[in-house]
Amino acid sequence: MLTDHRVSKRIAIIDVGSNSVRLVVFDGQTRAPAPIFNEKVMCGLGRDPDGSGKLNAEGVEMAIGALRRFATLLRAMKISRVDVLATAAVRAASDGDVFCQRVFKEAGLKVKVIDGLEEARLSGLGIISGDPHATGIMGDIGGGSLELVLLDQGQIHERVSLPLGAMRLQAVYGNKREALEAEVKTHLDSVPWLAQHEKLPLYAVGGSWRSIAKLYIAQEDYPISVVHNMTMPNSEISDLTRIISQQSRASLEKIGGVSKRRTDSLPHAALVMHHLMARMKASEVVFSGHGLREGWMFEALAQEVRDRDPLLETCLGFAEDSERFHQHGEELYRWTDPIFREQPSNLRRLRLAACIIGDIGWNDHPDYRAEQSYNRVVRHPYLDLSHVDRVFLAYTIGSRYTGNFRGDAASDRLLDEDTRKTGRLFGHAIRLGHTLSGGVEGILPHCELIHDDKTLILRLERSIGDLNGEVVDQRLSKLAKLMECDSKIEIVDAS
């Protein structure tokens, strides 16, 4: 039984990396915490062109200023728990301790410095938090280091931290291609298990790698701008990373879609991905918006909470924020089950998700409910679904609000006709359930849907027989037509 476990206690995590300092405030310590505030400052703490071994002086001042601002905001937000995590730049710098002391003195924030292997483990947990059965190799590239983790069915088996951060490589090697490639290959060759697990996906974490996905989106006019869980086959990503790795700053800026502060090191990040995928003979790359912060949050949860489905927990939170009667979803799912019982587990999960969020457009103008609800799902920043499943769920919700929903470029590009038909069927079944019950719990258990191959029957107990009407008949007829059968309504005595 799914229940709503959201809590009011807000938590803040500040990630002090080699390239950026980011504050994220989450709405609570839950299975699917929603970011309610997110701000990043590109400080470049790890930028060390002179090889001094110290933090970048200008970056330090920017970081201190950003942290003081964050501390002031967090006090105003009345955030009771703030975790400040520092990674490669601070742990490697000779003046890292001095920086941490200054942060505490000037901003009142205590910095926890994470070592390389711990960073790898936490980033791996970040992937698992979104995909409990993740199997593949996670790579988390920052400015100063690259963390690699071998995942098998949601378990961490191997991990390593390598000095292959994009900013470090740019600072040390610049455009010296031959020396750069030798450095990357040497370090990747030192990890024997990379070559022992062929045809696995690469889960790509880190802003520099997400920038590669953004370039692809801009170049190919890809219909979804959300990078999280975007998947590309090896054949496409291999060519793309090779091309990016050979580009100048000026040429990358002309393409667009990437922040100017990342363009200098983006070719180096692309080169690392190119050789990593070749080394592991990866099947595909899955770009992830999850990483260290999400792993840190996930580990703090009780095991019972960690075991919950992240998609369904997200939908429950979504429903609570958006719907009139958010408890209605599971009841609706059980009611539709008899006509969809033989479908595979993934489709059943997506139908449950659709039933939970099936009323999110109730307060939109009727003429725009389908479109607005569709866009809300497609553009949700952290929905833990592949892009195909994300669009399918959105298409289902759009079909729930109108009998002739057409979708958009995303549904045209990512869904085949059979998948669209299934989405329409789910949507129209949810539409019928909401029309019949008004979205209120307690009505659907007194009626049932029966499909006998030739006829779709809506059977109502006599006690709720007055709920039958013209609109209900229309909705039932439309669903039956999609199922290529006739429809009939029966009023019966309660058994």
Concise description?
The protein has about 500 residues and is an alpha/beta fold.
Query: What low-confidence regions span 5 or more consecutive residues with pLDDT below 50?
Result: 1-8
Mean pLDDT across all residues, rounded? 91
Q: Structurally, how many domains make up the residues? A: 3
What composes the largest sheet?
A: 6 strands, mixed
Name of the level-1 CATH class of the largest domain:
Mainly Alpha
Assign the CATH topology of the largest domain.
Answer: Hypothetical protein af1432
Q: Oligomer, anyone?
A: single chain
Order of strands in the sheet with most strands: 8-7-6-9-11-10
> What's the N-to-C terminus distance?
25 Å
Descriptive overview:
It is built from 21 helices and 14 strands. The strands form 3 sheets. It has a 6-stranded mixed beta sheet, with helices on both faces. A 5-stranded mixed beta sheet has the order 3-2-1-4-5. A 3-stranded mixed beta sheet has the order 12-13-14. It starts with 10 loop residues before the first strand and ends with a strand. It is of the alpha/beta class and 495 residues long. The longest helix has 21 residues. Helix 4 packs across helix 12, helix 8 packs antiparallel against helix 11 and helix 17 packs antiparallel against helix 18. Helix content is 48%, strand content 16%. The N terminus is likely disordered. The protein has 3 domains: 104 residues, 2-Layer Sandwich (Nucleotidyltransferase, domain 5); 177 residues, Nucleotidyltransferase, domain 5 (2-Layer Sandwich), CATH 3.30.420.150; 183 residues, Hypothetical protein af1432 (Orthogonal Bundle), CATH 1.10.3210.10.
